[in-house]
Amino acid sequence: MKERARRKAERPGEIIEAAFDAFAERGFAATRMEDVAARAGVTKGAIYFYFETKERLFEEMVDHYSRDMLADAGAMLAVAQGTCAEKLRAFLSFMYGRCACDRRGREMIRFMVSDGKSFPQLVESHHRNFFAPAMGMIAELLAAGVASGDFRPEVLKHGAEIVIAPSVFLTLMRLIFGSNLAIDEEAYIAAHVDLLLNGLLTPAGRENLSSGKACGEALSPI
């Protein structure tokens, strides 16, 4: 009985995993519930027991992976040590790893671009529950750097968007060109971080980065 209950509890997650693979491969419109059922090893009726429509399954799938990524980003920042510049470098490394360099993160962006017009409520939810909080993390980190004297105050205006833009560009290029995109991703990321910090850091911030001085107060959890 315990094993049966455990399997039942895990089934929605297994269906979401199968749905991701199906939607990523075929797109929302071409994917049938039968395709998801075959991948999950369940009947179509079992899927409808947990998700009443294909649209609902799609929305739950996107929301599930977005929540996971946001939670992991918050956990990473909560334990990040060092200067504001080092924390920003760690955050960017995380975002590159989970978006541009990870298939699941890339596909989340593809879903927003290709199917967002058909799911305006999903785009709104994604913005509210993932994009805005993630941008808030960056903005808070930049504000801490300005408050500590490490970052130039000009960064407070549209700084979060400028910080994240190169990673979005790389993600889109990888989505469009796939393996045909001949780029050294490690070198790209290193160049982005280097150029960003050279633009952000004040003279005092450079000294703090060299000495390893901690970044102001701890960031509040999201």
What would your notes on this structure say?
- This protein is mainly α.
- It folds into 2 domains: 1-52, Homeodomain-like (Arc Repressor Mutant, subunit A), CATH 1.10.10; 59-211, Tetracycline Repressor, domain 2.
- Helices cover 76% and strands 0% of the residues.
- The protein has 10 helices and no strands.
- The protein has helices spanning 2-26, 33-40, 44-50, 54-79, 84-100, 103-115, 120-147, 159-177, 185-200, 203-211.
- The model is unreliable at 217-222 (pLDDT under 50).
CATH overall fold name of the largest domain: Tetracycline Repressor, domain 2
Number of strands: 0
Question: Could you tell me how far the N terminus lies from the C terminus, measured between alpha carbons in angstroms?
Answer: 38 Å
Run of helices and strands: HHHHHHHHHH
Tell me the β content: under 5%
Rg, Å, rounded = 20 Å
> By CATH's scheme, which homologous superfamily of the largest domain applies?
Tetracycline Repressor, domain 2
Summarize the model shown:
The protein is mainly alpha-helical.
Task: State the main characteristics.
single chain; 222 residues; mainly alpha; Arc Repressor Mutant, subunit A; Tetracycline Repressor, domain 2; 2 domains; 10 helices; elongated; disordered C terminus
Topology:
Blueprint: H1 2-26, H2 33-40, H3 44-50, H4 54-79, H5 84-100, H6 103-115, H7 120-147, H8 159-177, H9 185-200, H10 203-211
Helix pairs in contact: 1-2, 1-4, 4-5, 4-6, 4-7, 5-7, 5-8, 6-8, 7-8
